[in-house]
Amino acid sequence: MQEREQWASKLGFILSAAGSAIGLGAIWKFPYITGQNGGGAFLMLFLLFTILIGLPLLLAEFSIGRAGGGDALTSYKRLAPKTPWFGIGILGLVTCFILLSFYSVIGGWIVIYLFKAATGSLAHVQNANYDGLFASIIANPTISLSMQFIFMLITIIVVAKGVQKGIERMSKIMMPALAILFFILVVRSLTLPHAIEGVRFLLQPDFGKVSSQTILEAMGQSFFTLSLGVSVMVTYSSYLSKKESLPKSAISIVIMNIAVVLLAGLAIFPAVFSFGMKPDAGPVLLFHVLPSIFSQLPFGMFFFFLFLVVFLFAALTSGFSMLEMIVAIITKGDPNKRRKWSWIIGLGIFIVGIPSALSYGLMADFKIFGKTFFDLADYAVSNVLMPIGTLLIAIFVSWIMKKSTVYEELSEGSEMRKGIFQAWYFLLRYIIPILIIVVMVNVLRQV
Q1: What are phi and psi of 170, to 5 degrees?
Q2: What's residue 127's pLDDT?
Q3: Is 114:309 a contact under the CB 8 Å cutoff?
Q4: What is the CA radius of gyration of the chain?
Q5: How many domains does the chain have?
Q6: Would you say 232 and 325 are in contact if contact means Cβ atoms under 8 Å apart?
Q7: What one-character-per-residue DSSP string does 51-72 give?
Q8: Would you state the pLDDT for residue 1?
Q9: I need a surface site. Which of 17, 239, 301, 420 has the fewest CB within 10 A?
C-alpha cells in the first residue's frame, strides 16, 4: 500500500479547507438570505451562531479525521469498531454526491455568465432584460449541460492530480486571488453614490426586524456555511500532520469565512442601494440584479467579470472538497487509484446531475412531491441530509469517541486549556444537538 497523502503545509490545509467552506453558501446564498432577513441583525446573529455552533462542529469533524487517520468511512470504523457509526461516512458520501450533482449545475451557470461577460455580450442585452436572459439560458439544454460538464471537468482534473499537486496547489492560487478580487470589488462598490445606505443595511442591526424565523435562518446558515455535516472536513483533516494545532486551524478558517461573507455583503449591498433596488431579490440576486447594476457603471461589466471569477473560484474549491471526500473513500488512500476513480465518480455525478440541469427546461413539468429535480435535491441536502449529518457528528464526538482521545487531538500542536475544552465539550454534547433538532423541526414544519 502506498503511503497516504498529506498536505504539504499548514497554509495549504487552511486555504483548502477555507475554500471548501467559502462556496455558494457564502457568496451566493448568504447575501440574498441577509437581504430577505433585514440585513444587520441577521448578520449579527449569523456571526454569533457561527462562533458558538459552527466553530465547535468544525473542531468536532477535525478531531474525527485526524484521530481516525483515514477517509470518512475508515475513520469512523477505527474510532468505533464493530458499530454502525461508520454510517455517518456513508451518509456524507451520498450527500456529497447529490450536492455536487446540482451544485455543478449552478457552477455551469457561472461559467456561462463568465463567458458572456468576457465576450461583452452581457453589456448589450436588449432593454436590460437580464431576468429574461437568465431564464432563456437555464432553459436551453445544450448550454446548461455543456457548461455543467465543463465545471465538472475542471473539478475532476484537479482532484485527479492529488491532494498536494491538485487541490492544495489550486487552493493556494484561487484563495488569495479571490481575496484580492473581492477587495477591488468592495472598493468600487463603496465609491458609488449613496453606497453608505448599503453599508448601514449590512452592518447596522435593527433588532426590531428580528423574528423567530430570522433566528432560525441565521442558525441554519451557520451550520452549512462551513461545509459541515458531510464529513468533508473529516477527510481534509485526515491529511493533516500531528504537529499542527486543530483549534488554531479551525479559528483561521472561521475568520476567513466570516471575512468573505462580509466582503460579499460590502460588494453587493452598496451597489444594490446605490441604484435604488431591493436587497431581498432572493436567489436571482447574482444573475438578475447584479448584471443590471453593473451594466450601468463605467467599466461595469469588467467589475462584474471579476465578481464572476471570484464566484467561480469559490464554487470550484467547494467542488474539489466534495469530489475528494468521495474519491478518498473509494480509493482508501491509494494514490494509484485516484486518477481512474476521480474520472469515474466525477462523470457519474455529472450524469446524475442531468435531470437537475434540465429542471428549468425539458423537465420543468416533471415534479416529485411538487418539486423539480433541482429543487428536490437542494431541499434534501440542505434541510434533511446535512442537518442529520451535523447532529450525528456532534453525538459521535461527545458520546461515542473517548473523551481522552478527543482532548489529545485538540491538544496536539498546542496545549488546549482544560476549561476551554470542557466548555466546548458541553456545548457539543448538550446544546448543539438540541439546536440542530430545533432547526430541523422548524424547517420540516414548513413543508
Answers
A1: -70, -35
A2: 66
A3: yes
A4: 21
A5: 1
A6: yes
A7: IIIIHHHHHHHHHHHHHH-S-H
A8: 42
A9: 420
- Give the position of cell 465538472: 152
Q: Is the dihedral of CA 165, 10, 75, 51 positive or negative?
A: negative
Cell 457528528, located at residue: 393
In a domain, 111, yes or no: yes
Domain that holds residue 303: 10-445
pLDDT digits (tens, 9 = 90+) for 143-165: 999 999 999 999 999 999 998 88
User: Is the pTM for the entire model greater than 0.85?
Assistant: yes
Residues in the chain predicted with pLDDT less than 70, given as ranges, are 1-4, 127-128, 281-284, 446-447
**Is residue 5 included in any domain, yes or no?**
no
Cα angle, residue 93 at apex, residues 87 and 94 outer, rounded to 5°: 90
Q: How many CA atoms does the CB half-sphere of 77 hold within 13 Å?
A: 9
pLDDT at 281: 67
Q: Give the CATH number of the domain where residue 271 resides.
A: 1.10.4160
- Which amino acid does the sequence have at 315? A
Q: How far is CA 356 from CA 105, 144, 362, 364, 382, in A?
A: 7, 10, 10, 9, 15
> Could you report how far apart the first and last alpha carbons of the chain are, in Å?
48
